[in-house]
Design brief:
Two copies of one chain form a homodimer.
Chain A (H helix, E strand, L loop, with lengths): L1 H10 L1 E3 L3 E3 L1 H5 L1 E2 L1 H14 L7 E5 L4 H11 L3 E4 L11 E8 L4 E8 L8 E9 L3 H12 L3 E11 L4 H7 L4 E9 L6 E2 L4
Parallel strand pairs in A: 4-5, 4-8, 8-9, 9-10
Antiparallel strand pairs in A: 1-2, 6-7, 10-11
Helix pairs in contact in A: 3-4
The structure holds guanosine-5',3'-tetraphosphate (2 copies).
Chain lengths: 192, 192
């Protein structure tokens, strides 16, 4: 997605040759018009999949997901990482391992919001090791719903997440794919 | 806002006579079209205030805020409740007291994203005791920016937040105002 690549090139900051900071338009400050275009892009990629639901995870996945939901005319559910005041239903839960923190955390979605036979599009902002996306997919499977695909805003292709998800048989559509952040420089993959 | 009141009446659940659960369209599952209409409503209410920035707080404030930002053509920043991978700049911080948990927590926004003279619209999903909205307003003031108003999706008028913010001189615009949840019944305030 050209405008996204331009934003990354112009505003992205690389840290330690392996982290892309895009706090100015995606992870802290959000550019709503860009999110709207990202949502439209996901909607077009999955337009013939008869999506019935979008699933994402708090917090940075919410804006891209809700814009995709607006264009696809489907509800969006965000998995919670922590207890919330009203999330006390029967829950679907999965664990997410953090390599950085070396710890395992649980994420949850109420069973009320993923039904058997839902055709689910998973959306998230980053795809790195793929722990979060795998956990979301696992919850969809536990609900006997179908993962129609995984939409990612920024894929770090040099980490294992993309291959892991594709090896599991999922269709992964990433709007920007970064083959390297080495030397604090953003290199986009040139072909699929 | 009529369609919001209808959604609350139809899908809201009252818990213990004091909590309104709207997980089916606002706090866990999100209705994107409703969010789009909510965003438009906020944009119209603040259309002559020359808003330059919207501030909210993760997670449930993000969807309404980003839709308002889409209609007002301004960036949206969400305050973080916890450390994030890339939020390591100079921070504006404020504390939020939780009556339920009887604890104080810190929320933060990078100084990069609220500039002196920004004309800020604060948006959040619920207004109850007003701790979160007050903390967001405090951060805006610390940055020498101006709070043009506070846009709330659902105000619980029987709690002190709305009056607290108005007494501080802020303009508060709530799209649904609930005067009571007693007897597990939703009663909307009938006039301003
Ligand atoms: N900006 C940025 N973030 C990255 C990058 N690589 C991974 N992340 C984010 O870091 C978080 C994952 O951190 P950990 O759970 O500690 O996992 P990890 O060490 O195994 O990568 C996720 O944030 P999250 O759960 O999505 O957090 P939130 O922003 O939704 O709150 C993920 O999106 C990167 O290059 N740049
Ligand atoms: N559904 C619902 N929520 C209510 C109601 N009253 C307050 N809240 C939410 O509860 C959270 C505040 O809880 P606490 O920090 O424990 O504060 P409190 O006990 O002083 O109210 C906030 O969620 P938050 O920080 O916005 O969480 P998040 O959803 O953004 O993650 C607030 O929006 C209500 O009647 N219904």
């Amino acid at each position: 997605m050209k405008v996204l690549q331009e934003k990354i090139t112009k505003h992205g900051q690389v840290i330690s040759g392996r982290i892309l900071k895009v706090d100015s338009f995606l992870n802290h400050q959000i550019d709503p018009e860009l999110m709207h275009q990202i949502g439209l892009e996901f909607a077009q990629l999955f337009s013939s999949d008869e999506i019935t639901k979008i699933i994402t995870i708090e917090s940075s996945g919410i804006a891209p997901a809700v814009m995709a939901g607006l264009h696809l005319h489907v509800p969006v559910v965000f998995a919670r990482k922590r207890k919330s005041l009203t999330l006390n239903d029967d829950l679907l839960s999965s664990t997410v391992f953090s390599f950085t923190k070396n710890e395992t955390n649980e994420i949850s979605i109420s069973k009320k919001y993923i039904k058997e036979n839902d055709r689910v599009l998973i959306i998230d902002d980053f795809l790195a090791n793929g722990e979060a996306a795998s956990a979301l997919a696992e919850m969809v499977e536990k609900a006997n719903a179908k993962v129609m695909g995984i939409g990612i805003v920024i894929e770090k292709s040099f980490q294992k997440g993309a291959n892991k998800l594709k090896d599991q048989g999922y269709r992964v559509e990433s709007l920007a794919r970064i083959s390297s952040l080495a030397d604090d420089k953003v290199t986009f993959t040139s072909e699929k």
